[in-house]
Design a protein that fits this description.
Blueprint (H helix, E strand, L loop, with lengths): L4 H5 L3 H14 L9 E5 L7 H5 L5 E6 L11 E4 L12 E7 L8 H11 E12 L18 H11 L1 E9 L8 H6 L2 H9 L6 E8 L9 H10 L9 H9 L1
Parallel strand pairs: 1-2, 1-4, 2-3, 4-5
Antiparallel strand pairs: 5-7, 6-7
């Protein structure tokens, strides 16, 4: 039987998970001036200006499924996660709620996120931890990715890992009463098995190498000091320097 994100968000456990995810968002070290924010998946009624305690210029909610409820606080856009309908370097913050688990091309999704983020822009990725009690339902809710694999993908793309954490140490249950009885697992798990929370969260930043131009007079001084001539410098390199 095929499942999607709507199956997960219809589970009572998701209410508690969402509360903890909002707590994580509210405590991230982000201080931006009126950023453009893109949300992929997740709850459709989040107010990021309230969560982050700073004004968000544009809050965009992108969904692939037409059945997802609209967000009155956002610009609602229906599109494909593997072909984002936004200009390159137009987004300051991207928040991904369990998108990669349900994608056939999770690395392609991350490449698209990297492209639309501005230099030094942030991505926040929430995912299901395969090494947790929640992993008992991995055959039901998407394809779980290990944090090690995801970390490698992010770093290969050019993201810098700023923060990583796991949380929610309870299993998936259909009873709020039983879930409340297992609240003690949160404190116990965070102390004894901090890497085994059911949900992991990555905070990453897009890093782009910046080439600093070398002025011709500085290059000449260097050449004289090293007793070399400009004949050692390729003509194409000289022409590029002269054009600056």
């Amino acid at each position: 039987m095929k499942h999607n994100q709507l199956d997960w968000y219809s589970n009572p456990t998701s209410d508690l998970v969402l509360e903890q995810e909002k707590h994580v968002l509210a405590n991230l070290p982000l201080r931006l001036f009126r950023p453009n924010l893109l949300q992929l998946g997740g709850a459709s009624d989040l107010d990021y200006s309230a969560l982050f305690n700073f004004a968000v210029e544009k809050q965009i909610y992108l969904r692939e499924d037409l059945h997802f409820p609209l967000n009155s606080l956002s610009y609602n856009v229906c599109g494909c996660y593997t072909e984002l309908p936004f200009f390159s370097a137009s987004i300051d913050i991207a928040v991904l709620f369990h998108i990669l688990e349900f994608s056939k091309e999770p690395r392609h999704v991350l490449r698209e996120i990297f492209d639309v983020l501005r230099p030094d822009g942030y991505a926040i990725v929430f995912g299901f931890n395969p090494f947790s009690l929640l992993a008992l339902h991995r055959l039901t809710y998407g394809h779980y990715l290990s944090s090690k694999k995801l970390r490698t993908w992010l770093e290969d793309l050019g993201f810098q890992i700023l923060d990583y954490q796991t949380f929610f140490f309870r299993p998936v249950l259909n009873s709020n009463r039983k879930l409340k009885k297992l609240r003690f697992l949160e404190g116990l798990g965070s102390m004894l098995y901090p890497s085994c929370g059911g949900i992991y969260a990555f905070l990453v930043q897009k890093k782009v190498a910046v080439l600093t131009p070398v002025k011709e007079n500085l290059l000449d001084q260097f050449a004289k000091g090293m007793h070399i001539t400009r004949s050692l410098i390729k003509p194409t390199a000289r022409s590029r320097i002269n054009e600056q």
